[in-house]
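Figure caption, in words: inputs first, then the predicted bound structure.
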Amino acid sequence: MVPNFMICYLVSCFDCSALVQLTMADNGSVNDDTTNQNSEIIKTESAPIDELSREIQETLSVSQRHKFWETQPVGQFKDLRDTSLPEGPIEPPTPLSEVKQEPYNLPNLYEWVTCDMNSEETCLEVYNLLSNNYVEDDENMFRFNYSKEFLQWALHPPGYFKTWHIGVRVKSSKKLVAFITGIPAKIRVQNEIITMAEVNFLCVHKKLRSKRLAPVMIKEVTRRVHLENIWQAAYTAGVVLPTPITSCQYWHRSLNPKKLIDVGFSRLGPRMTMSRTMKLYKLPDSPLTPGFRKMELRDVPSVTRLLKTYLLEFVVAPDFDEMDVEHWIVPKEGVVDSFVVESQETHEVTDFCSFYSLPSSILGHPNHSNLKAAYSYYNVATKTPLIQLMNDALIVAKQMDFDVFNALDVMHNEGFLKELKFGPGDGKLHYYLYNYRIKSMLRSSELGLVLL
Ligand SMILES: *[C@@H]1O[C@H](CO)[C@@H](O)[C@H](O)[C@H]1NC(C)=O
Ligand SMILES: *[C@@H]1O[C@H](CO)[C@@H](O)[C@H](O)[C@H]1NC(C)=O
Ligand SMILES: *[C@@H]1O[C@H](CO)[C@@H](O)[C@H](O)[C@H]1NC(C)=O
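Bound structure (2-acetamido-2-deoxy-beta-D-glucopyranose present):
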């Protein structure tokens, strides 16, 4: 019934495959072109983790690569079954005075800059770099087209560090050719709340991909994170590295099936016609739940309470306060949308749902240039059934002209995906913690964290 989605569309995977490259190339003797090996690895996705581990060890023909990871403060495959290892930081913080004070060296023609994303001019340069050079699907049919407003939102949470928005320019022309960012986030692992960095938007201009900029950029952002006395990070990748805390799958719900099929995002199911497919995905014109309305600033306290309680159910989840909710959840046009259900009797907010807007450019198609995608963010249902709440989310996303609604199988999402006609994507998204060991891998439903 559900068409097969052809693309392996892994959010934030480029940044992290570059993370592999970074760390690999940390040692000059190691080849940094690991992408192909890793896409082989991904084919083993259904294998249990120790089988994966063995296959990975076998795939790593370059022994230094293996050695390299053994030197990093990340969970190791060989330790996966060793439950005697303590949970928590793998390495203690080093004294701040021992953190390297000067930036890492770049190749001679390039220089570091700190990007002031509040400057329209700089933000436009970053936008242009990303919209032309950032993540594409495997078949180069789509490329993320994060909007300027989205970037400003994503990079300016409460307590952000401007110095973590790092660019690389060509010295002579000042052209921006690479970018990487970190933002601070309080993330709870079991009962410990840890301030971490979330690293994202690593992008190197296509023409400079062979110049080994990515590794030094990741080292530089790590150094700047350490300078703020922060020693842990959370990140995602489309490839298997030592060692995921969990592996998730993307699911896609067609809102505009004709366009998705026309542009090659999905294909017509067997024995399906276009008109039957359009009927299958048809949604009501307006939300069905009484009291379902757009979230407003005045809802921040109740949404924070709902979210805090809900996120305690998960092993790894952000620790949001009202300031975080005001930043991350209150609707921002064209960036993030949130809806609450307000009880008709008590006027209490009992449920909410949210999604962010991350369009992609459609490459080389004669009739369509922009794919409008909504991504499920945080959803909490206490009175309204989750399926009904998310059906209303689909309805409003359709009203807003999104073509597709994407969701990971994290939190309680498995409870609505099949029922609401989401189809599984063919890629995985792996979550990692840097310098923090957890005792055993989580199920994706035990994860309460969505990274942009
Ligand atoms: C890099 O690798 C070489 C060869 O394996 C080794 O001798 C050297 O110590 C390594 N350097 C660092 C900084 O790890
Ligand atoms: C683009 O639109 C034209 C006119 O509607 C149609 O004939 C053509 O098949 C479309 N091209 C693609 C690749 O969908
Ligand atoms: C990318 O998004 C911008 C708005 O942020 C839009 O103006 C532009 O047309 C989009 N690019 C493509 C190729 O769709």
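The chain has a mean pLDDT of 85.
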